[in-house]
Structure prediction request, 208 residues.
Amino acid sequence: MPEPVHEVVGKAAPLEGDDVDTDQIIPAQFLKMIEREGLGRYLFYRWRYDEQGKPMQGFVLDREEFRGAKILIAGRNFGIGSSRENAVWALMDAGIRCVIAASFGDIFYNNASKNGLLCVKLPEEAVKQLREKAKPATLTLTVSLEDQVVNYLGGKIAFEIEPHIKERLRGGLDDIDLTQSVYESKIKEYEEKMPSFLIPKSRRLLWE
Prediction:
């Protein structure tokens, strides 16, 4: 179950470029890993390591002044491509709690909401301005999901978010949690009509 999201406060890091797909976020060879912990090491792997696996210099999240950044400011179409949820897991394991972009891949956007990663869509010009402000590594943002506002020293930018996505993030709800929150009474009503031996023991204990 993801942690509820109400606001994200932290340093912002600029990620240049549009159309960053999920294979760039985490390459396919790391999808065999089933544990979320440790996936951050492979985030943007091809941009951070050479063919021998040795670290390369200069990638924004590896620079000392951006270490610990919680907010990533990207470009258009962030997270397009295949539906690997590992891309979200890798970002979160690396400490990213919010991605700001002009647009997102639909599947990535939905996966993010299920895992407690706040994705904020802003007009392209606003994204570019924030990315420029972030380059000196001095930009701290307060992204309020409650108020739907990105706050920074000297200004603020309102954003829209789908009500069901906002509710999911605020409640810290994954798919199972969401189903239970909506259909719990119906599930209980149905199971009460079933012979007890047909109900899994774990479910019977909920009603006993």
User: Anything to note?
Assistant: The chain is about 35% helix and 15% strand.
